[in-house]
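Hey, I'm writing a tutorial for new members on how sequence and structure tokens pair up, and I'd like a real worked example in the thread rather than a made-up one. If someone can provide the structure for the chain below, I'll link this post from the tutorial.
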Amino acid sequence: MRLISGFLFLIGAIIVLQNCNDPAYFGTDILKQDSIKLNYIDTFQLEAQTVLDTGIVVYNYTTVPFVFNNRQAVGNFYDPVFGNTESRLYFQFKKPSSAIPANYKDGKIDSVILYLAVDTSFGNYGKKKDPHDFEINQLSTILDRNQNFVYNDYSLPLLGNLVGSFPGVIPDFTTYPRVVQGPDTNTFQPHLAFKLSDQFADYIKNLDTLYYNSDSIFLSSVRGLCIRQTNLNANMLSFNTSSRSTGTKMTVYYHKPNDTANYYYNYDITSILCPKVPQWNHSHSPSIVSSLNSVEKGNQLIYLESLGGLKTKIRLPKIKIPPASLINKAELVFTVIDLPQDDTSTYHPPLQLAFYKSDTILGVYNFISDQGGQANYYLAGGNLTTTTQNGLTTRTYSLNLSSYLQRYVAGLEGAEIFLKIAPVDADQTSTTGTSYASYKSLLIPENLSRVVLGGPKHKQYPCKLRISYTTY
């Protein structure tokens, strides 16, 4: 009898345990009472307009936050959709850093060579084999290191005589020169070598030794150089002007009756004595000019361009969701539009876009809250994504602004945000500290690129604000 009772108890326990695997068996009333509902909305009416990307501080080393770049664009770039962009570079260099000051007395200068390392991590943009006609001039005024250089809000006059003219330059990004000097072998980054004029060499030679007593005295006479491109082509170069690059310097080669030597004039990224100031000039096409500040045209097509070119102002709609709702995810999705006159084999869209919630403040962008106050753009997405479905390939950008939208609904943020091309290597650190490392985000170079996107009312590929939220 006990055996039968035990057997029946075991069978009953198994049945109960099987029923426990059904989530509706226990706690059904609790689940119904606290059920969570997920809702989706993508029918918001956005407004967009293409505007000039003004207010960028391109160099500042006098007040926090500091702004200076390691990599600089140089070129005179033709674009069939956007128009022409010229980017030139003004820079200064320090006196030789050797313990013994330069002394060319009783010597003869063989040559003065300006070396500029090409940026192998980014390379160039456009047609890689297009030749460049470069000119190098000497500045007629010193680069004021106490000045905030705001894009296109300064004039830097040049001396009339050229320091060098170099037509038909086609950089080689694959050759790393090796130099053997005694027991040492040095490998240098790919670079361009510009032999400066004999007149400039004589000018350096004839400086009194007094000018080598300090950098400031030296710079009062040798005021720096400007490199620019005179011909129009479809290629933009990027130079590495950091003192840490193995290839960027100016070298004076000279000899005396019983001696042959050289002096290196360095660039120093950590020195306020060596500004590197770019200047960007845009001549936009008629279609771009007619689209500026137009909501009507911006709702069809929006344009983004680097080097202080174009950004997009987006106005968010009034968003109504039930009280006590939580936004799970909010993203803006944009589709790349290939226009008939474009050359997609040459002009490529950027790898990443980014949101800012206001214009620049002292050269530092005011990041949306989804980036946690940091220059880490990857926290908010915005990467270029390519998908192919039914033989049709589309390229899109999806940018997260969940936190910003939650704050916007609560009245803590404004209705306008700006869409721009994200800089190269944008996954940097916060700008809240005071050490050099804390300002790495301000060393981000421009991402040489441009793109056309569908606006909110584009017939085929409108941009969409997609929101999913939870109600309890």
